[in-house]
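Escalated from tier 1: nickel (II) ion holo job.
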Amino acid sequence: MSNEQGRQRALIFDGTSGISGDMTVAALLDLGASEERLMAALATLPVHGFEARVSRVTKSGLSACDFDVVLDDEHQNHDHDMAWLFGENGTDEHEHHHHHDGGHEHHHHHDEGHEHCHEHAHGHDHGHGHHHAHRSLADVRAVIEASGLTARAKELALAVFGKLAEAEAKAHGATPDTVMLHEVGAVDSIVDICAVAACLDDLGVDQVVVPCLSEGHGTIRCAHGMMPIPVPAVANLCSAAGIELVPAPVHGELVTPTGAAIVAALRTSAELPDSYRILACGYGAGKRAYENTAGVLRVTLAEVAGARDEEAADDDPGAEHPVTKLECDLDDCTGEALGRTIELLMAAGARDAHAVPVVMKKGRPGYQLEVICDESNQQQLMDLIFENTTTIGIRSMTMLRHPLRRQPDEVQTRFGSIATKRVVLPNGSVRSYPEYGSVVAACERTGASFQEVFRAVEAAAVEADA
Ligand SMILES: O=C([S-])c1cc(C(=O)S)c[n+]([C@@H]2O[C@H](COP(=O)(O)O)[C@@H](O)[C@H]2O)c1
Ligand code: NI
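Tier 2 regenerated the structure:
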């Protein structure tokens, strides 16, 4: 997804007000994800009794987008009822999130279809008659798979639910396949997570950067009863994914299990890029009213240097320098998992990542995964490999890299301006390489074949150097 200059699109999450599913959808819509395509995708979900509303609200003086999944009476929950959630000690002030500041609201009603789950009213009474759907991971998976979401959006939504199920299973002494998802498997959570996946797919990004999340303190009431904050599911998600929590002076929950699962499943890096160019900022409003926090999730869409660009930006691109090589042998990892891992490694800043076919001990055919990276992001990339492949060990070694001097350039062709890399050989002669991404962009723009464009760039480069 790199652009013609090899730069990548990154989403940078500012988690200083925490994160929830609806805040994330709202921020992505505010950034430019298509509301029309989102609503069309949500209309295909085989669940009923909800209405998705998008509006503008003012939160802490900031104009923000609000995404609200309004449930019919039968499915209603108390997620925004501060007095109920936090009791006497909670902030009783209830900010009415349907309040508008000159914005307009779009209502999308979904009352068709059927549910693949077992729904029943709870016997326990919180003083509010209410109703929870108890879905298992398999129930939720069936809903997502039967929907009309794109293949990529389904994959993203399933990844988020996979993380949620692992965290819930650990909290309740079950397995991801046997644990029952209470609030986190209810219609509003399914809609929020599918909406995040659809918007993210729509925005087409290479990286998701989340440095840390602010979290409040105290207790919160949920389907299980009173829970300490961070609630067990959030604590498990953050522990498993290495998400740093920053204590905030807030009595209440800032990070919901859905929010933490989104970060755990979709984050490609915790490190801010060395530099980035802001393309747009999106502000997603939270529903709960807390003091000492803006109550909005800001997501920044930025252009950052891709791996190739970083290479070109080395201080002295002609000088040898140390790099780290990570390697592991895999005989039990699927091609899908390996391909996904390589994509994640590249997006997280690996200089190179590839799999070489090998015949391993006991005559087993397998792959050697090889990753070249800077020492500074070795730990992050090793974590990615452990999380996404089946390996239980990684070898690391420091090597010297001897690059030829190179600089980014561009040449004019009949297909337009195309990016190249000019490399200086030890004898002083120059070689120009067409940048793959730029050649492909020209092919798509003009309908020309890869070979036609590639040769035109080579010819123009030779002429320019003559
Ligand atoms: O639904 C379940 S099982 C659930 C578990 C936990 C645990 O920590 S275990 C916590 N909660 C609370 O439910 C609400 C809604 O969460 P969403 O992620 O769906 O917004 C939230 O306050 C959680 O703390 C639910
Ligand atoms: Ni739970």
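The pocket of nickel (II) ion (ligand 2) is lined by residues 168, 171-172, 182, 224, 233 (CB under 6 Å).
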